[in-house]
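Exam revision sheet. Question 4 asks you to relate a sequence to its structure. Input first:
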Amino acid sequence: MSRVTMNMMVNQFNSDLNSQLTSISKDSYELSSGNAIQLPQDDPVANNYIMSFKEKINGITNYQSNITAGQSILNSTDSALGSISTILNNANTIALQGANVTNSDSLTSLEKSVESLKQSLLSVANTSVGNTYIFAGSKSSKAPFSLDSDGNVVYSGDASAITYSVEPGATTTVNIDGTQLLPIFKSLDNLELALKSGNQQTISNSVSDIQSAITTNNDLQSTVGSRQNMMQYLSSYYSNATTNYNTILASYQDVNFPTVVTDYSTRQTAYQAALKVGAQILPQSLVNYLQ
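Answer key, structure tokens:
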């Protein structure tokens, strides 16, 4: 039978105290930080899950940021196309009136109304979100539409698509480039010239140009609407996914405060009790040193 020496008792006592202090320190860290894991080696499996879900959440955050930026452009584009729809409907009314008017003064008045509509269309076509002109393609830092000295519309943007990454391996276009608005400007030009000519047949022909422009604008609105719906779907999907991931993440990394508080209190009590027991079985000088 092995003899238990004083040295063995001291070593065991010291080991038990250190173990208790380690546990108390861990509880203290968890209570102060709110994190259940201080170091990866504390729970390698849980740590791997935490890293994985954090990576997923960061990726979603980037996609959501792109979606928000894309929605801003799409919403402004939708509003602008709505204004263009109003302009074209007014132009259609003028064209129908002009087709049934022979009085030159009346035609001149209608012509001026169309000129005013062109200015309104020019303003809408130069809509910007912040410093970005939404119909300018990639040349979005300056207004893309202007009038030359003869009153002709000049487009200085390009036909580039503005895209955002909104899901793994996929991008979506968020802009309507200004080249697609040129036929709409042309329809107003044709109507203005027809009214200026006073030729009833020419004015009647311009009605079909305006109606064609209305169809073009409706198609653009449909395209933008589809993109808005997709963005809204992805935004909702990512919002729900983030909530779910955060819930799972919390189950691995967040402290169960009631449990840890109880453990901390229990270990503190046990530690103090161990010191008292040690004072009874070990030399007083050693206990004083350990305290």
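Marking note for examiners. The radius of gyration is 37 Å.
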